[in-house]
Amino acid sequence: MNKSELIEALAQETGLHRNVAEQVVKEVFSAMTESLINGEGVEIRGFGSFSIREYGSYTGRNPKTGEKISVKPKRLPFFKVGKGLRERVKNKVGQ
Q: Which of 34, 32, 80 shows the shortest CA–CA distance to 53?
């Protein structure tokens, strides 16, 4: 499911006009993004949690040339699946 399909599903399920559903989805994503930018986590019980992981600098290598390169420290979003979602997906396999 992509963002457009999510908007369409929300509109159909709730009876909201598509433009309103689109604004709701955009606002939810925007609020989640802002929280992560500010270093705060986002937890949706039964679904999972989003957090920021910080990675230190290290020496890597260019796979094309084999040349050693310095990789700068970085902050990246990380998703940890919730127990409820994990169980629902796991139990759906093979049915």
A: 80
